[in-house]
């Protein structure tokens, strides 16, 4: 009052003016209060009879008056006496409207909404009820994600959606995820779907916290993807973060601890077997070989000393514990995740804040992944007609370790742990003077202690991502909404590699450490404006919804990297080296700036429905992109779809079995512009790779900015999709499902088309060729039992896809190299692309076991075996140390007179890496407070190219390395008896090898044969979860609304014939054309998780 | 209307963006420094594996009576050396592509520099232009000598071109590039006029290159008539003109006095191993490999080293010498110890005796000579430069052309040979090994020519010039047939030990011990067969290794010329490489393989 007085005295005009206004509002309020009634009540679940907190209670027709039920489902409202009806709404329940009719107590039971068809689906620049959909969209709701903890977004989708194949490339905490929607049409370009997170396109989804996800919708056919025009050809994955629902403030905590084990190791030779193998090889090499053996392993007469020795299990030592007990014994093995979120607000302002910290130490020594996510989302009604939204996501991820799959850069390879000798020979048994003995062995074998090496292959990645989005919606008049959205996206990634003295990289630099650090910045922004108009009853009982919009999107990339070699102190710590790069040699700092990758778009969509039974959607989008030359920048992508809800027809009302039935048909075009920048014009760039060294100084130089010849005529690649679908529900939708049939054709493929290399280029980017994908998808959900205390449901999905290359650039087949064995591999073009065939065919020799003694003539004088005439001769292919009986035998395929096996005539397609079908099945059951979920997924009918197996069984030009157990003395073809004598006599050699099952490993080069192409089919119990939710009555006493404990085992069980670590693997990803190669993949772990979900 | 226009213009502008990290053609060729960077882009391709690190320098220059690559039937380099390569050979695709990539870069430089306003006024820019021309000439020389007639591209590739080019006759190509070189030669700098010296293509080298290419143009080459019938031919109508051109440019270089022979033969190569590049000495041009990313001189080509804890790291030593080559040397020739190493280094850097069947290696280069060794785990990419041409080559080409043009050795010819031999022998031997030797060799054209043939073998052993010398002389078939027979006989005579045959007095075994330093080998019995091991010496099998126990030739001999079974030496050697099947496929019918591939 003092203040008021002061203000009055000073003649504050604003204050003077405000007093009458204030008084007016007070009066108005008083007048309202004078005519109110109090209403209270309890809202419960119709099935469980439990109270429902958080239910929105509103006066119908007046959004400003309302409340939310408390923890016990109670609500209280003061209402204008004139109010007639109350509306009760809650996520997952059917909204009910109740007439007040003068009552003061209104208790109500809400029916759970089992009609999945009524769920809201995100369709791009809007949402739609599933019942009104005309296109093909698969969804996973946040609710489904909540019950099982996932450490990544991709894990959340794996196996859950028909037609969406998710392959985690290997088991590392930072593994790349390959998502393919209906096969993917592009041959040489990236087939990754477009990821949209809250409207913003992003490159990867690994930095999104699964706790924040509200829903994931995958748009599969062109009628739904065409709204994303140029970028929709490979499908669109839309991730929507949790939308704040407002109401009383709730605090949620989700947390878990996890341990991991390595479920499988590859058996290797024991110390004794290893010694025998070494002696056999040494004997074949002659005197010098034996001398080498004696130095390291002693006399052969004493070989028995190795019989009782237990070998070092390097796989376990490098890749972690094998049993749960082992895993639990060390606290360093524990992963943790903590998520805290606060949600609340009132009718006007709603917010949601979520903070997550996840720490995953990784299975392999020296690896790990720690992530902090912060997200905030706010909606605010500025005016009744003006709504404001803001959301931001920040993530910071630290990834430790070089992993194993990037074997071109990382020294740590799976092969090191498998092949490193299981024992040190004499050095293990007696003290030996020569201290460098074992390092001599290391040099000869080309391998060093895998534990030490893993610690010296240091890599640390720091990734920061910030995304800010603001939106404003204005209801100009009834049914006309204008919306503008603006967002910025900023990524900053730091990548540090340090190569300790024992790494091969340091080896090239005088065994002195080397450090490389690089940073990449990717800023981007997006601005979209839409206008949405709905007209009802144009004719009668119909509705038209129109959307027009415009969007611009700009992305940029810049990077800086620097390298320092020759740190003179080999023991320098990585952190020191990075902090003091100047201690090393002076090198170039490399930097690069991309062009601004801009996209300008205009789009429109019309939805028309007649009598709620006949629906039509038409879409058109025009995109202009900086990837193309002026004149070719714009692409136009139309689509149309029809749907008929048969179940709503009168003639369907007679029966009670089919509760819903809808048929859909759609056709449309979507585009793809994913290729390098400036492919349409000739430019120069700077390079310092493989430079000339005037004065021993590497000279940076100019070269064409791309190794692919430019082409000014480039235009968009276009995918035409045709989709037919059927959505059905039986027995009041207790059983419901979807069947989709599709046929996608991708035309004007952006192909690096082969041109004669006398131009200086081997390829030119052209729009040429065609591929197609055909398939069937089925999704089924059954709520078999639905009782208050007991529920049981199954959901099932399966997808069949057949891909085909229809046309190429004038040739019928093209070879491709997976590159796993580098130039060591005998035939490097191990994949082939053929017209009329799918992508991913493996090209190689057919294995024919091994040569028997009887395949040869023996000359007792020279002690030499010569191949009999008419027997195929592969000596030149396998380059064996000792070509003769027991050498790997290959099938002769050509019918010409020469029996010499040749690379050009005797290879064929030995495997197809495409599955026949993939799918998943989920069993859910609840009994009182208990819940149980089992989720299986499978891939069937694909081949995996087990390059590890080839590598680990061929003794190429090195000594003292171990092999897979299948090459033990019993199994392999051997030339030496157990007394250490070489056997050459044919009869004796035959007798010695009468039980041999595999060839002798002493071959010069690894060869790709049908033997290493294995069935990759698997059925995996992806996860099993058992949860217990405490009764609400008990927890309410401590102010809680939910308290659930759960235990989950991931990768709990797998059924497969695959002999490697895990059939779900694809490590060589230089291009999408060489899938399914298992080489040096980080083994997939099995994890055990104990977690809790709490709400207050 | 106005709004639409504004919208449209701003939209167009929004879709026109440039990256600051790229340059246009106009920018690159508007400044001397940037032009140099573009020319370095051509040089850079020399350092690749498929350039001169191994493929062009070694894989394609084996096997002959001098160098031979060890191993057999590998689908790669050994098949090439043995003339058994097929169209899927793993080592014929990347070098082909790399050569044409380099040619296209050179074409861009040639066009860009020529069109620049600086071209007429700036001497440095003229030097760069000359370099681009010389680089292209060298690249085409590699193409035609390895593949014969090939597509001939003289302008940079642009998007709308017809990419499908047929083969052009190799004579046309060589004539074209020789004329190019003749045109730019006067405007180029000698090595001592540039800070990078002999690491850049310079006037002295270009004079030598004109001579080398002219001798290739005027020499013999394998021709395939109707695609299948093969014969060695030269252009009889004009070949002598090219000897004249070669003669002229060799003389020009000698007259310039810009280069003189390094007095100590061994130093030429020791300098390379120590990264020393004298500008007025023996080497006219060498490929400037940077350590750790290029060059296998001292690794693939050099004394073999086993890796151990020593600082030098491994050397594979895959270029080896024929034992008959070792025995062709005069024992007093100082080039012998610098050229042939009979030993390799073990993991403790002790010398270990090799076998004559693939164990004699070039001693000119070794990682152990390096002043900055690369470490125990180092392997290839030594950074040691590869000499493309030396001054003694020019001297011997001058002697050869004098002899050819004048129908016998002139005084100039004799004095050139004298210079080379005087450096090779100690002064005490000059009377017999130089004066007398040359007098004996100068009786007629054929004898003198033969002396040149031999001298080039001794002077350039390990430098991998032999194969293409023999080809242009049409001596390849004859020479390798003779070498094979000689080796078979050596093996037979020494293995059976019956005292029969031409090589009965040659050593079947040799004897060695370590010198006082306990590292260096002391070998006896190399030239005289001993029947008993001298006291304190260890016995090692020597020439008997060339035969199996039953007297049949060792696989080393039967493999090395497997694709040339003719022992008379009359048949032409199919040394021309097949064009890789994927290149044939990509040509859509415009290229075929001849020579029965």
Outline the structure in words.
With 1096 residues, chain A is mainly beta. Chain A has 19 helices and 54 strands. Chain A has a 22-stranded antiparallel β-barrel. A five-stranded mixed β-sheet of chain A has the order 10-15-16-13-14. Chain A has a four-stranded antiparallel β-sheet with strand order 3-2-5-6, with no helix packed on it. The longest helix of chain A is centred in the N-terminal third of the chain and has 22 residues. Chain B is mainly alpha-helical and 597 residues long. Chain B is built from 22 helices and 13 strands. In chain B, helix 9 packs antiparallel against helix 10. The N and C termini of chain B lie far apart (68 Å). The relative contact order of chain B is 0.12. At the A-B interface, helix 12, helix 14, strand 27, strand 28 and strand 32 of A face helix 1, helix 2, helix 3, helix 7 and helix 22 of B.
Q: Secondary-structure blueprint of this entry?
A:
The complex is a heterodimer of chains A (1096) and B (597).
Chain A: H1 2-9, H2 13-34, E1 36-45, E2 56-59, E3 62-68, E4 74-80, E5 85-89, E6 96-99, E7 108-110, E8 120-122, E9 127-129, E10 137-141, H3 142-146, H4 153-157, E11 164-168, E12 177-181, E13 194-197, E14 200-202, E15 213-219, H5 222-225, E16 236-241, E17 247-261, H6 271-285, H7 287-297, H8 314-319, H9 324-328, E18 335-345, E19 349-360, E20 368-383, E21 386-400, H10 414-419, H11 426-429, H12 437-445, H13 450-456, E22 457-477, E23 480-499, H14 504-507, E24 514-536, E25 542-555, E26 558-564, H15 574-579, E27 589-593, E28 597-610, E29 614-625, E30 634-645, E31 658-672, E32 684-692, E33 699-704, E34 717-730, E35 735-747, E36 750-754, E37 763-767, E38 770-786, E39 790-807, E40 813-816, E41 831-834, E42 841-844, E43 847-850, E44 856-859, E45 864-867, H16 875-878, E46 888-890, E47 908-912, E48 917-927, E49 930-940, E50 943-945, H17 947-951, H18 986-992, E51 1013-1015, E52 1018-1029, H19 1032-1036, E53 1042-1056, E54 1086-1095
Helix pairs in contact in A: 6-7
Chain B: H1 2-14, H2 25-28, H3 32-46, H4 49-53, H5 55-59, E1 67-69, H6 77-81, H7 93-115, H8 123-147, H9 170-184, H10 203-218, E2 221-225, E3 229-233, H11 239-256, H12 265-273, E4 283-287, E5 319-321, H13 323-328, H14 335-339, E6 340-341, E7 343-345, E8 351-353, E9 361-362, E10 386-390, H15 391-406, H16 411-424, H17 430-441, H18 445-460, H19 466-472, H20 476-496, E11 509-514, E12 521-524, E13 538-541, H21 555-560, H22 581-586
Antiparallel strand pairs in B: 1-5, 2-3, 4-10, 6-9, 7-8, 11-12, 11-13
Helix pairs in contact in B: 3-7, 3-8, 7-8, 8-9, 8-10, 9-10, 10-11, 11-15, 15-16, 15-18, 16-17
């Amino acid at each position: 009052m003092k203040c008021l007085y002061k203000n009055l005295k000073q003649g504050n005009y604003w204050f003077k003016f405000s007093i009458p206004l204030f008084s007016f509002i007070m009066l108005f309020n008083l007048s309202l209060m004078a005519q109110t009634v109090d209403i209270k009540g309890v809202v419960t679940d119709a099935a469980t009879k439990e109270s429902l907190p958080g239910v929105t209670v509103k006066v119908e027709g007046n959004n400003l008056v309302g409340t939310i039920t408390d923890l016990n489902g109670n609500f209280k409202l003061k209402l204008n006496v004139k109010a007639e009806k109350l509306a009760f709404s809650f996520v997952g329940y059917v909204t009910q409207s109740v007439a007040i009719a003068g009552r003061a107590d209104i208790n109500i039971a809400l029916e759970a909404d089992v009609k999945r068809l009524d769920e809201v689906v995100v369709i791009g620049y809007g949402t739609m009820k599933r019942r009104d959909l005309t296109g093909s969209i698969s969804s996973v709701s946040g609710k489904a994600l909540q019950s099982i903890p996932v450490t990544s977004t991709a894990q959340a989708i794996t196996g859950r959606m028909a037609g969406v194949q998710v392959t985690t490339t290997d088991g590392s905490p930072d593994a790349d995820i390959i998502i393919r929607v209906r096969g993917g049409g592009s041959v040489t370009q990236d087939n990754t779907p477009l990821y949209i997170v809250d409207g913003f396109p992003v490159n990867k989804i690994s930095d999104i916290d699964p706790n924040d996800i509200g829903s994931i919708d995958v748009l599969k056919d062109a009628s739904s993807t065409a709204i994303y025009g140029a970028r929709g050809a490979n499908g669109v994955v839309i991730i929507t973060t949790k939308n704040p629902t407002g109401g009383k403030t709730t605090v949620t905590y989700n947390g878990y601890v996890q341990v991991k084990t390595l479920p499988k190791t590859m058996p290797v030779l024991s110390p004794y077997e290893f010694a025998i193998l070494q002696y056999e090889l040494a004997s074949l090499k002659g005197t010098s070989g034996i001398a080498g053996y004696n130095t390291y392993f002693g006399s052969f007469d004493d070989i028995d000393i190795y019989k009782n020795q237990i070998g070092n299990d390097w796989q376990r030592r490098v890749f972690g514990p094998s049993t749960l007990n082992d895993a639990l014994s060390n606290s360093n093995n524990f992963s943790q995740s903590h998520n805290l979120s606060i949600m609340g607000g009132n009718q006007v302002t709603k917010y949601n804040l979520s903070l997550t910290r996840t720490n995953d130490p990784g299975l392999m020594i020296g690896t790990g992944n720690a992530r902090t996510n912060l997200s905030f989302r706010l909606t605010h009604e500025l005016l009744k007609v003006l709504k404001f939204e803001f959301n931001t996501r920040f993530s910071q991820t630290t990834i430790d370790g070089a992993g194993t799959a990037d074997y071109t850069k990382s020294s740590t390879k799976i092969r090191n742990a498998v092949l490193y000798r299981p024992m040190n020979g004499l050095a293990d048994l007696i003290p030996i003077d020569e201290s460098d003995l074992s390092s001599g062995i290391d040099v000869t074998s080309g391998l060093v202690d895998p534990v030490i090496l893993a610690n010296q292959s240091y890599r640390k990645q720091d990734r920061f991502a910030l995304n800010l989005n603001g939106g404003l919606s204005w209801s100009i008049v009834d049914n006309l909404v204008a919306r503008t959205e603006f967002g910025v996206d900023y990524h900053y990634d730091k990548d540090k590699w340090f190569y300790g003295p024992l790494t091969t990289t340091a080896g090239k630099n005088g065994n002195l450490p080397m450090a490389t650090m690089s940073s990449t910045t990717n800023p981007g922004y997006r601005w979209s404006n839409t206008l949405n108009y709905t007209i009802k009853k144009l004719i009668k009982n119909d509705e038209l919804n129109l959307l027009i919009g415009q969007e611009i999107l700009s992305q940029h990339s810049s990077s800086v990297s620097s390298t320092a070699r020759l740190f003179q102190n080999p023991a320098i710590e990585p952190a020191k080296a990075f902090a003091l790069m100047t201690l090393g040699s002076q090198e170039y700092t490399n930097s690069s700036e991309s062009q601004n990758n801009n996209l300008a778009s205009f789009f429109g969509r019309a939805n028309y429905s007649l009598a709620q039974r006949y629906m039509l959607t038409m879409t058109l989008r025009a995109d202009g992109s900086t990837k193309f030359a002026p004149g070719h920048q714009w692409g136009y992508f139309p689509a149309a779809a029809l749907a008929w809800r048969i179940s709503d027809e009168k003639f369907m009302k007679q029966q009670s079995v089919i509760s819903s039935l809808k048929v859909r048909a759609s056709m449309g075009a979507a585009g793809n512009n994913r290729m390098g920048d400036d492919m349409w014009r000739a430019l120069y760039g700077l390079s310092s790779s493989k430079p000339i060294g005037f004065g021993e100084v590497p000279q940076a130089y100019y070269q064409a900015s791309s190794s692919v010849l430019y082409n000014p005529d480039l235009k968009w690649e276009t995918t035409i999709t045709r989709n037919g679908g059927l959505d059905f529900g039986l027995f009041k939708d207790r059983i419901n499902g979807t069947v989709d049939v599709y046929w996608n054709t991708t035309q004007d493929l952006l192909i690096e088309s082969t041109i004669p290399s006398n131009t200086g280029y081997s390829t030119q980017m052209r729009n040429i060729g065609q591929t197609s994908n055909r398939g069937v998808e089925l999704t089924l959900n059954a709520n078999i039992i639905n009782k208050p205390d007991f529920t049981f449901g199954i959901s099932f999905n399966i997808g069949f896809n057949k891909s085909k290359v229809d046309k190429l650039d004038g040739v019928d087949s093209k070879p491709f190299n997976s590159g796993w064995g580098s130039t060591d591999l005998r035939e490097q073009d191990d994949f082939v692309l053929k017209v009329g065939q799918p992508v991913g065919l493996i090209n190689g020799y057919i294995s024919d076991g091994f040569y028997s003694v009887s395949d040869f003539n023996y000359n007792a004088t020279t002690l030499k075996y010569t191949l009999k005439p008419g027997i195929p001769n592969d000596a030149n292919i396998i380059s064996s140390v000792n070509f003769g009986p027991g050498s790997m035998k290959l099938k002769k395929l050509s019918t010409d007179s020469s029996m010499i096996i040749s690379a050009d005539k005797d290879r064929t397609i030995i495997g197809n890496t495409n599955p026949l079908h993939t799918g998943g099945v989920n069993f859910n059951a609840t009994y009182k407070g208990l819940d149980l979920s089992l989720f299986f997924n499978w891939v069937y009918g694909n081949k995996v190219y087990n390059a590890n197996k080839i590598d680990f069984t061929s003794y190429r030009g090195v000594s003292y390395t171990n092999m897979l157990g299948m090459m033990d003395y019993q199994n392999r073809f051997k030339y030496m008896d157990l007394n250490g004598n070489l056997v050459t006599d044919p009869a004796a050699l035959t007798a010695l090898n009468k039980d041999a099952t595999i060839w002798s490993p002493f071959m010069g080069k690894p060869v790709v044969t049908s033997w290493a192409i294995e069935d990759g089919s698997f059925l995996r119990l992806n996860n099993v979860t058992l949860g217990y939710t405490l009764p609400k009555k008990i927890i309410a006493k401590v102010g809680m609304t939910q308290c659930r404990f759960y235990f989950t085992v991931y990768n709990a069980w797998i059924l497969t014939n695959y002999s490697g670590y895990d059939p779900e693997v694809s490590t060589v990803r230089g291009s999408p054309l060489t899938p399914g190669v298992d080489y040096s993949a980080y083994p997939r772990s099995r994890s055990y998780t104990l977690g809790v979900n709490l709400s207050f | 209307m106005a709004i639409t226009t504004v919208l449209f213009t701003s939209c167009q502008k929004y879709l026109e963006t440039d990256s600051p990290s790229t340059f246009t053609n106009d920018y690159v060729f508007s400044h001397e420094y940037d032009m140099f960077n573009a020319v370095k882009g051509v040089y850079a391709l020399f350092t690749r594996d498929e350039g001169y690190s191994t493929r062009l320098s070694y894989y394609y220059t084996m096997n002959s009576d001098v160098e031979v690559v060890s191993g057999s039937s590998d689908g790669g380099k050994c098949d090439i050396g043995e003339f058994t390569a097929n169209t899927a050979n793993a080592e014929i695709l990347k070098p082909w592509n790399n050569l044409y990539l380099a040619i296209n870069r050179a074409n861009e430089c040639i066009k860009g520099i020529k069109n620049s306003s600086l071209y007429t006024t700036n001497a440095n820019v003229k030097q760069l232009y000359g370099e681009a021309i010389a680089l292209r000439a060298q690249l085409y020389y590699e193409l035609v000598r390895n593949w014969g007639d090939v597509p001939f591209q003289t302008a940079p590739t642009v998007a709308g071109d017809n990419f499908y080019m047929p083969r052009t006759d190799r004579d046309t190509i060589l004539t074209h590039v020789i004329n190019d070189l003749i045109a730019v030669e006067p405007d180029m700098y000698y090595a001592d006029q540039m800070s990078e010296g002999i690491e850049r293509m310079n006037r002295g080298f270009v004079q030598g290159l004109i001579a080398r290419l002219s001798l290739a143009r005027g020499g013999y080459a394998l021709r395939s008539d109707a695609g299948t019938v093969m014969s060695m031919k030269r252009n009889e109508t004009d070949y002598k003109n090219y000897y004249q051109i070669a003669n002229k440019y060799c003389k020009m270089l000698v007259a310039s006095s810009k280069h003189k022979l390094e007095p100590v033969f061994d130093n030429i190569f020791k300098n390379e191993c120590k990264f020393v590049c004298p500008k007025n000495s023996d080497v006219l041009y060498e490929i400037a490999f940077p350590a750790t990313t290029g060059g296998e001189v001292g690794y693939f080509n050099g004394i073999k080293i086993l890796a151990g804890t020593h600082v030098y790291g491994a050397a594979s030593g895959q270029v080896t010498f024929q034992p008959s080559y070792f025995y062709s040397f005069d024992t007093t020739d100082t080039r012998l110890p610098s050229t042939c190493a009979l030993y390799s280094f073990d993991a403790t850097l002790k010398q270990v005796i090799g076998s004559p069947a693939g164990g004699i290696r070039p001693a000119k280069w070794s990682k152990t000579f390096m002043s900055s060794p690369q470490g125990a785990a180092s392997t290839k990419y030594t950074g040691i430069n590869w000499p493309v041409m030396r001054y003694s080559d020019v001297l011997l080409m001058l002697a050869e052309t004098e002899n050819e043009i004048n129908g016998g050795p002139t005084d100039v010819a004799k004095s050139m040979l004298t210079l080379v031999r005087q450096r090779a022998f100690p002064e005490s031997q000059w009377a017999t090994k130089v004066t007398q030797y040359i007098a004996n060799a100068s009786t007629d054209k054929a004898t003198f020519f033969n002396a040149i043939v031999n001298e080039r073998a001794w002077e350039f052993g390990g430098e991998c010039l032999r194969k293409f010398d023999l080809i242009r002389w049409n001596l390849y078939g004859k020479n390798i047939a003779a070498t094979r027979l000689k080796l078979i006989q050596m093996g037979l005579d020494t293995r059976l030990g019956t005292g029969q045959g031409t090589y009965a007095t040659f050593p079947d075994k040799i004897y060695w011990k370590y010198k006082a330093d306990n590292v260096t080998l002391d070998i006896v019995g190399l030239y005289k067969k001993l029947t008993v091991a001298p006291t304190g010496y260890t016995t090692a099998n020597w020439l008997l290794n060339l035969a199996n126990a039953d007297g049949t030739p060792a696989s080393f001999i039967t493999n090395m010329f497997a694709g040339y079974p003719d022992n008379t030496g009359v048949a032409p050697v199919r040394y021309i490489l097949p064009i890789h099947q994927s290149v044939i496929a990509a040509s859509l019918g415009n290229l075929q393989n001849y020579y029965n591939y």
